[in-house]
Amino acid sequence: MAASKGLVVSCLFLVMLFAQATSQGLKVGFYSKTCPQVEGIVKKVVFEAMKKAPTLGAPLLRMFFHDCFVRGCDGSILLDKSNNQGEKSAVPNLSLRGFGIIDDSKAALEKVCPGIVSCSDVLALVARDAMVALEGPSWEVETGRRDGRVSNINEVNLPSPFDNITKLITDFRLNGLNEKDLVILSGGHTIGIGHCPLVTNRLYNFTGRGDSDPSLDSEYAAKLRQKCKPTDTTTALEMDPGSFKTFDVSYFTLVAKRRGLFQSDAALLDNSKTKAYVLQQLRTHGSMFFHDFGVSMVKMGRSGVLTGRAGEIRKMCRVPN
């Protein structure tokens, strides 16, 4: 047992070294000389789109998250595959929206700075600007990523709404992220919606005895059962009831009251470190949440990136060159 634990620690250490080494080519202002207008161009596209459809904020944030957790932040989530065998076709990615915003941003950049800005950097900038458009946090985005050429549905193994805290911590560590990052990035659930199939297991027959998840507040469970019948596959649920369109700190209040929608939300109370971070957000009224969210997003954006001469700069984000 000790030997196997040592092997796991060694593997995690090597993964963190890899994430650190591959992120060294990133920096804020990477395009300052080759395409100085890059951030203004992307922001204009995002703000115009978000004005028409503010609910795109959550899917765009998830898109960046889902990209970085598979093969690193290399834009592989954006690639179309004629045989539907790309990452886009994996079940967790079927609900992603906003790919057109990436396309429009890239097209606008190609007119001004052809062949300069990578699609993976466009996605990183779009995720930030979508949060700013919702009056949420802002942060300086490191750029300099290059685009991957591979997108494989079989490599999609993302953290799940059904995961326990041990699985969540392991998955985040493999991407160079710690327990605090897990809590802070989970705070992104303050915006967006989920659907009944992601919570019905918590509402009906949780342990095989016709019961609900004991970690879910009973009053909240009763309200959810009114909306979600056992066979309901379509009804949408607000992740943060009452303010699901607003990026705020109320998510942590809900989690502390055992009203997080997913098992993965409730799981944050099952570890001393993650629980402490949740309660810290309550004590400080989330005064550091926006700042911490930006820090964690920058860390996530360094995961497994391609820099230097690795990868390519795609001309169009949906297809490799």
From TrEMBL:
Coiled-coil regions listed: none
InterPro entries in the record: Haem_peroxidase, Haem_peroxidase_sf, Peroxidase_pln, Peroxidases_AS, Peroxidases_heam-ligand_BS, Secretory_peroxidase
Keywords: Calcium, Disulfide bond, Heme, Hydrogen peroxide, Iron, Metal-binding, Oxidoreductase, Peroxidase, Secreted, Signal
Keyword Metal-binding included in the entry's annotation: yes
Reactions catalysed according to its record: 2 a phenolic donor + H2O2 = 2 a phenolic radical donor + 2 H2O
Family according to the record: Belongs to the peroxidase family. Ascorbate peroxidase subfamily. Belongs to the peroxidase family. Classical plant (class III) peroxidase subfamily.
Protein name, UniProt field: Peroxidase
Organism: Camelina sativa (False flax)
